[in-house]
Structure to design on (468 residues):
C-alpha cells in the first residue's frame, strides 16, 4: 500500500508541475490534458483494480505517458515561437498537434477497451503439461547449450573485444542480415540457456551433483551473456529487455507485481536509460575512454543527459507521428504495403527488389527531403504505423491487434512452462521499444530472442527426447 501511495504521489507531482509549466495555446493544453486523464484512468485500473500481474500494461502506460505526454509538452514549452521545431525538425503546427493527440487518444482508448474485453473472455487457468523428461535429458540439453555458448564465444571473441575497445559504430563490414542473425539470435542463445537452467533448478527438490554442476554452468553462461551484451557493444533497446529479464529471473520479488514493476520501469526510462545512452552511443572505445575519461562526460551531455533527454531524438515518438501524417498527406496511404514488409521481413531485398522500406526510414527520408533533416534512421510508433497503412481505421485495427497478442502473452505468463513465462516477460519490457517503433524493427528484434530463448532449447530438447 505504501508503494502505491508513493507511486500516486510521484505521478501526480510530476504531472502537476508539467501542466502548470506548460506554455501552449489553450486548445493544445486541453488536448494533452484529455490524453493525460485517459492514461491516468488506465493507470488507476492497473495499480488498484487489476488482479493479475501484467507488465505489458505497465509498459504501455509508461510509454504513452513519457513519450506522448511528458516529452512533447517539454518540447513545446521550450519553443520560443520564432521558428519552433521539434527534434526531428518538423515545425510546430497547432492542427497537427491536435490531430496527433486525437489519434493517440483513439489508439489508447481502443487498446484499453479491447484489453478489458479479451481479459474478460479468457480463461487464465494454468494448464499443466504432461511432458515427461528422462533423468539425463535436461542435463544433456544444458551441457549442449553450454558447449554452443563456448563455441560462440571462441569464434567471436576477437570481434567482441574489438567492439569493446573501439567504437561500436566504426565496424560495418558484415551484411545487415548476417549481423542480425548473429547479434539478435546467436548471441542470445546464452539467455535461452540461462532460462533453461533456472527452470531445471526450480524443479529440483534437493541438492545433487547435477544441481551443483548446473549452477556453476549457469554462472559461466551469465558471464558469456554479459560478454556478448554489454553497454559497449549493444544499444539500449536490446540491453533493457535482457538485463531486466535477468533481474526478473534471479530476483523476482523485486519486480513481480504491478506497483513494483511500474516504479522500476518509470525510473528506468526517466533516469537510467538516459545515463546508459552515455555508454551505448559514445563514439570512443574503452581504451580511449580509459585514457581520456572526459569523453564519457562529453557524451553524456551531447546525447541529452537526464534533464534534457526529453527534448532529444530519444523521445521523438510524438513528433514522428506528425511527420507521418504529413507524409500521408503528400504520398497517400500505403494500404497495408508497409505492414506486409514487416510480416515478410525475412525475405531478402535481393529476392524482393520492391520490398518496402521500414516506416521509420521512409518518414526520415521525407523529413530530409521536405524539412532539411539530416537523419533517416528514425523511430515510428504503433499509432503512426496504423495510420500510414489504413488511416484512422488502421489506428483502431493496430490497437486491437496489440491487445489481442498481449492477452496471449498474459496467458504465457501464467503457463507452467518457464520458458513461455520468461519470453512473455521479455516482450513486456521490449514493448517500450515495440511501441516506439518502427514496427519492422520492433517485430524483427523480438523474433530473434524468441528463436534463441524459446525455440532453440526446445529443438535441442526434442532431439534428445527422440534419441533417449
Amino acid at each position: 500500500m505504501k508503494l502505491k501511495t508513493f507511486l500516486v504521489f510521484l505521478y501526480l507531482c510530476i504531472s502537476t508541475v508539467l501542466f502548470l509549466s506548460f506554455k501552449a495555446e489553450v486548445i493544445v493544453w486541453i488536448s494533452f490534458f484529455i490524453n493525460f486523464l485517459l492514461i491516468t484512468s488506465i493507470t488507476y485500473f492497473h495499480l488498484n483494480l487489476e488482479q493479475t500481474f501484467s507488465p505489458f500494461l505497465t509498459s504501455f502506460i509508461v510509454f504513452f505517458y513519457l513519450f506522448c505526454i511528458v516529452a512533447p509538452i517539454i518540447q513545446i514549452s521550450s519553443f520560443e515561437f520564432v521558428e519552433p521545431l521539434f527534434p526531428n525538425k518538423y515545425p510546430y503546427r497547432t492542427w497537427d498537434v491536435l490531430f496527433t493527440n486525437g489519434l493517440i487518444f483513439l489508439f489508447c482508448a481502443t487498446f484499453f477497451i479491447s484489453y478489458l474485453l479479451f481479459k474478460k473472455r479468457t480463461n487464465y487457468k494454468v494448464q499443466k503439461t504432461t511432458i515427461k523428461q528422462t533423468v539425463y535429458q535436461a542435463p544433456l540439453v544444458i551441457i549442449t547449450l553450454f558447449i554452443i555458448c563456448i563455441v560462440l564465444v571462441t569464434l567471436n571473441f576477437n570481434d567482441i573485444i574489438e567492439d569493446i575497445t573501439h567504437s561500436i559504430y566504426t565496424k560495418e563490414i558484415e551484411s545487415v542480415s548476417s549481423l542480425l542473425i548473429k547479434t539478435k539470435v546467436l548471441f542470445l542463445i546464452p539467455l535461452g540457456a540461462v532460462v533453461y537452467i533456472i527452470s531445471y533448478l526450480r524443479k529440483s527438490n534437493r541438492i545433487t551433483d547435477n544441481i551443483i554442476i548446473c549452477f556453476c554452468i549457469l554462472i559461466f553462461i551469465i558471464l558469456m551473456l554479459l560478454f556478448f551484451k554489454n553497454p559497449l557493444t549493444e544499444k539500449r533497446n536490446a540491453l533493457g529487455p535482457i538485463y531486466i529479464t535477468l533481474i526478473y529471473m534471479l530476483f523476482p520479488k523485486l519486480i513481480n507485481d504491478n506497483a513494483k514493476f511500474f516504479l522500476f520501469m518509470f525510473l528506468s526510462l526517466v533516469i537510467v536509460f538516459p545515463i546508459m545512452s552515455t555508454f551505448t552511443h559514445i563514439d570512443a572505445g574503452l581504451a580511449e575512454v580509459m585514457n581520456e575519461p572526459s569523453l564519457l562526460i562529453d557524451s553524456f551531455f551531447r546525447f541529452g543527459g537526464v534533464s534534457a533527454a526529453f527534448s532529444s531524438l530519444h523521445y521523438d515518438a510524438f513528433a514522428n507521428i506528425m511527420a507521418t501524417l504529413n507524409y500521408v498527406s503528400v504520398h497517400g496511404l500505403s494500404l497495408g504495403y508497409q505492414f506486409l514488409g514487416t510480416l515478410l521481413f525475412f525475405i531478402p531485398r535481393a529476392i524482393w527488389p520492391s520490398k518496402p522500406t521500414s516506416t521509420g526510414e521512409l518518414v526520415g527520408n521525407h523529413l530530409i527531403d521536405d524539412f532539411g533533416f539530416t537523419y533517416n534512421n528514425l523511430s515510428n510508433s504503433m499509432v503512426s504505423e496504423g495510420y500510414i497503412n489504413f488511416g484512422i481505421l488502421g489506428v483502431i485495427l493496430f490497437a486491437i491487434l496489440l491487445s489481442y497478442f498481449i492477452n496471449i502473452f498474459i496467458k504465457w505468463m501464467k503457463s507452467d512452462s518457464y520458458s513461455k513465462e520468461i519470453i512473455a516477460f521479455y516482450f513486456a519490457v521490449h514493448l517500450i521499444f515495440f511501441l516506439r517503433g518502427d514496427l519492422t524493427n520492433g517485430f524483427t528484434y523480438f523474433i530473434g530472442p524468441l528463436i534463441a530463448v524459446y525455440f532453440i532449447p526446445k529443438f535441442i530438447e526434442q532431439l534428445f527426447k527422440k534419441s533417449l
Residues 79 and 91 are 11 Å apart (CA to CA). The longest helix spans residues 137-165.
